[in-house]
Design goal:
Layout lengths: L3 H9 L14 E4 L2 E13 L4 E5 L4 E15 L2 E6 L2 E5 L5 E4 L6 E12 L2 E2 L8 H11 L6 E2 L3 H14 L4 H18 L3 H29 L6 H7 L4 H12 L3 H19 L4 H7 L5 H12 L3 H12 L1
Antiparallel strand pairs: 1-2, 2-8, 3-7, 4-5, 4-6, 4-7, 4-8, 6-10, 8-9
Length: about 300
């Protein structure tokens, strides 16, 4: 459900988003947290809104105030309802789209943590407050989070300050308060629990997407690196997840998919072994026959003879 009051206020303050450009690319340190604002944007996207998969070196926050939107993060698509927000830490692969029948209204924030004008690469060397907020946000899940009006009211407060002619320092301090409020949502027990649940669910989705990639590309000369690249993980990371969630290795699963397809071709066609081997992704029929016998205990020719009547 949309909060009409928030939407009306957001539209009423729409012209003040431009004034927040005054704090863009300026950094501020408060309570040990050093932040550089990269953008504050009003979003009024129509049905044709679509952004292809990409990633950033900074944090991106998206709040949906009216209607809904779809965002795919790490290959998992989420529907973001009105009154919900989500956060994408640096390096998160994501894409956006809108339903063909509607658009959505909201706002987005972009920022990064810095030190001496450079992106911070060593958070452990800094104060507790800096590390706490940065680490919480860096490890935040990307599921939709319902706002209890804290974020929307803080955002409207920032816009009204901009509209009243507040100075850069005041606006920076209010933006820092907004970031602190966002971080607070990811520090609560309930959200932390959701993060764990989402982590397991996301791992399943990653493995499922790897399996889907294999099933769609098994006739090609694909290897484990192609599969790990398709889900944006290192092969060692994917291999661990794959084993944990399927009990199988990636290579063994590729063979099972290919040889399962080969069984059908042996039963339902009169193609020779070299043709079948090529169609299911093997470079030569000798290796195909060896892999087939290792998995099923019989040669492809014996399998064809034994199942010819069943095929008929």
């Amino acid at each position: 459900m949309s909060d009409r009051g928030i939407i009306i206020d957001l539209y009423g303050c729409k012209q003040f988003f431009d004034r927040l450009q005054a704090i863009a690319y300026k950094q501020i340190s408060i309570n040990g947290v050093c932040i550089r604002v990269l953008g504050v944007h009003f979003m009024d996207n129509g049905p044709d809104w679509k952004v292809i998969k990409h990633r950033h070196s900074f944090f991106e926050f998206h709040y949906v105030a009216d209607s809904y939107s779809y965002t795919t993060i790490n290959n998992l698509e989420q529907r973001i309802e009105a009154g919900n927000f989500y956060l994408m830490p640096p390096g998160t692969y994501h894409s956006h789209r809108q339903d063909p029948v509607c658009g959505h209204i909201g706002f987005s924030l972009r920022w990064e943590f810095v030190l001496n004008g450079q992106k911070d690469e060593k958070p452990d060397n800094f104060g507790y407050e800096f590390s706490r907020i940065r680490d919480v946000l860096s490890n935040a899940h990307s599921r939709p989070v319902p706002d209890d009006t804290v974020i929307s009211k803080c955002m409207l407060g920032l816009l009204k300050m901009a509209g009243s002619g507040a100075g850069v320092l005041q606006l920076q301090l209010e933006f820092c308060q907004l970031i602190n409020n966002i971080a607070a949502f990811y520090m609560t027990g309930a959200t932390a629990c959701s993060s764990v649940i989402n982590h397991n669910f996301l791992e399943n989705q990653i493995v499922n997407n790897a399996i889907k990639f294999i099933e769609e590309n098994y006739p090609q000369d694909i290897g484990v690196n192609d599969i790990s690249s398709s889900v944006h993980l290192s092969y060692s990371h994917l291999a661990r997840l794959f084993k944990e969630h399927t009990g199988d290795s990636v290579n063994h699963h590729i063979n099972k998919i290919r040889l399962g397809k080969a069984q059908r071709l042996l039963m339902c066609t009169d193609k020779n072994l070299a043709q079948i081997a090529g169609e299911v992704g093997y470079n030569n029929d000798h290796y195909f026959c060896t892999a087939f016998k290792k998995l099923y205990g019989v040669t492809p020719s014996s399998f064809r003879r034994s199942n010819s009547k069943l095929a008929e």
